[in-house]
Amino acid sequence: MTAATPARRHHGNRHGRSEEARQAVLEAADDLLVEKGFAGVTMEGIAARAGVAKQTIYRWWSTKTDILMDAFLQDATEDLTPPDSGDVARDLSEYLRRLAWFLGETDSGAVFRALIAQAQHDPAFAAEFRTRCLDVQRARDRLPLERAVRAGQLPAGLDVPAETDRLVGPVYYRALVTGEPIAHAFTDSLAEAFLHHHGQAARPGS
Amino acid sequence: MTAATPARRHHGNRHGRSEEARQAVLEAADDLLVEKGFAGVTMEGIAARAGVAKQTIYRWWSTKTDILMDAFLQDATEDLTPPDSGDVARDLSEYLRRLAWFLGETDSGAVFRALIAQAQHDPAFAAEFRTRCLDVQRARDRLPLERAVRAGQLPAGLDVPAETDRLVGPVYYRALVTGEPIAHAFTDSLAEAFLHHHGQAARPGS
Amino acid sequence: MTAATPARRHHGNRHGRSEEARQAVLEAADDLLVEKGFAGVTMEGIAARAGVAKQTIYRWWSTKTDILMDAFLQDATEDLTPPDSGDVARDLSEYLRRLAWFLGETDSGAVFRALIAQAQHDPAFAAEFRTRCLDVQRARDRLPLERAVRAGQLPAGLDVPAETDRLVGPVYYRALVTGEPIAHAFTDSLAEAFLHHHGQAARPGS
Amino acid sequence: MTAATPARRHHGNRHGRSEEARQAVLEAADDLLVEKGFAGVTMEGIAARAGVAKQTIYRWWSTKTDILMDAFLQDATEDLTPPDSGDVARDLSEYLRRLAWFLGETDSGAVFRALIAQAQHDPAFAAEFRTRCLDVQRARDRLPLERAVRAGQLPAGLDVPAETDRLVGPVYYRALVTGEPIAHAFTDSLAEAFLHHHGQAARPGS
DNA sequence: ATGTAAGCGAGACGGTACGTCCGGTCTTATT
DNA sequence: AATAAGACCGGACGTACCGTCTCGCTTACAT
Known about the structure:
4 copies of one chain form a homotetramer. Chain A has 206 residues and is mainly α. Chain A is 69% helix and 0% strand. Chain A is built from 9 helices and no strands. In chain A, helix 4 crosses helix 6 and helix 4 runs parallel beside helix 7. The first copy, chain A, binds a DNA duplex (31 and 31 nucleotides) through helix 2 and helix 3. Chains A, B, C, D: It holds the Pfam family TetR_C_11. Chains A, B, C, D: This is TetR/AcrR family transcriptional regulator.
């Protein structure tokens, strides 16, 4: 938590909510998802594991997916930050590998997949999810290409959002739809084909 | 319904199940999904709308997603058949357009997305879903490239499954993750980039 | 249960409810009232102790007091039947003693007091309680005087309901309001004063 | 309350409790009981209506019935004071009429009935209620007979408490149990029978 | 033709989780 | 030191579905 904050420890308080309770809820939700799967994430279960009253949960979140969104926002950045070596080829390739790992192997990635799944089931949630979570994620996904354009390594007129979708799309597809493990060869060749198509020769020693 | 079977109308039957009940259940599940969303699809609701006893549903299906899988298998082929004009460029482009439309606009597509979503939430279901539904779908997705290879329009050594994933991945990504409408320009340029990369010049008049 | 009915034992049934569940609920409610007091009678507690689902309770009863009414109706008659020796003085005296014992000492009496209490708190309940329980009880209370009138031991024009209230009123008052134990002397002198006032000399050997 | 205290309006106070808050709570509880019935009297509701913090209530009262007891003690005396004309017959008859009206028609009477009801549900409360409220009330109920004995209008050896219970018992019974309206004829004949039994002829012109 | 057995609509059952309400406790800032 | 405000934990409320069960009816085959 905010390291600056000294010992907290309070139950109920006129001014503001309990940070302790907030953390406990987010962690409980996260843990339950990983341990028992999405169906195992229940409001009752979260409350019990977090040692928190249901009312406290409903005071600050409206649904369990709302909680998972908060948990995701708190954790995702740690696991998934695009590298920035200055070399497009290397950065792109590395980022796609990292994205594949994030989506398929990490706890945050599991939360993310659960949220995307829920967005299929519930349009209202989908809208909120896109605003609060997905836009952040997509901005991260665009970073490698944006940097390369700024650095002059890619043409200035490049349609970065569309090109990003083409690059990361197959990775998400594998993670979400086929569920296959994603080998480095797969992501590397995605990067290579992209750079080749845009007149950027693959680096010899890649 | 199996056209051979004449008018049925029966309650109970020693030998074999009621085709009437089967159809009613599949349609009820489909309708509920479209009308009320995934959360609105409940066993009780299906039973009530189909005019069928819950026990009859449980006799033949184990979960509501099991029902939706049957509904999908019955409907999907009608909506999504790859074209076969003999021209790779034209067929590929057309198929990607059709896939985008299917995933984003049709009722069957909505069912498909719901099933993919459920596969995120439930690994056991995921396995069954992949065997029963996804493999069929992926086979369909591979058809254009497979035909082109057979016809000599693409190199014989092409890794068709991987290349297919790279082609359709961005379409699924748009449909499942971003939820954006998918313009023809997007799918067309996917096809074009693919053909260009494999030494197949885009047709002049495309 | 109707002793004639053979072995029952069923879970769910198109035709009619489970007698087993019904009994279990009534007994659980009764037991909880005696053991833990009125506040200890909760729908959850009844369900848990009866080994019954809450939904099953709500299917047949609307409130916990509704359950207690059924429990009362089933048990009260056993504990409280007016004697009929043919001698007014003896019967009246005996009945008042028995009534005092019933209200103050028995489990059924405790249920009855709880219901009267609830009737103070809830007018809608009061109406139903009076119709379903109290009228039965008052009819019982009137029996000794009615028999005496029929037997010619009391004047034919006697206002039996009003006289009954005057007789039993003090007993209920002691039981409900003061909570004091009710000595035989108290009820006996009630009977004696009543008979004396109506020109009926007290029996010598009472 | 303490009429001496001047105008107030304060939040917090170094010296003693807020008389304002006390009054507001008692009135809120009273009003809620009359408006919404016993179930509508909740600590939260009282606090909200009185514009008082829950903690303030809990500082001075332990339960909502504790509040209602205070409210009763504050109001009851106003509504129910035994008359003292010097004539037993008249005073007794008048007091029973007044008691019937108090129990059945007044707001204080409604509070009193609610407290008696609660005493059925909760033995601990019953004990406190009898000490703090009921003894006062019974003392009031005994007054007419006590005065008559002192004035020589009734025999000196009369068991006043028991006789009082016999007199008022039927009135409480009608008010609490049957819920019927209590006609003057009913109370008058109670008084008459009592006096007749104790050798006191009814006054001719009553 | 008739008995038997499987599938059927109906619906009660024991459960789990839902989202809400209230009870009582605690902390904070104010007066 | 007492107050208004209100967040906190706990637990009962009444509801919605879950998946299982029993029931009595309908039907088609196998006697």
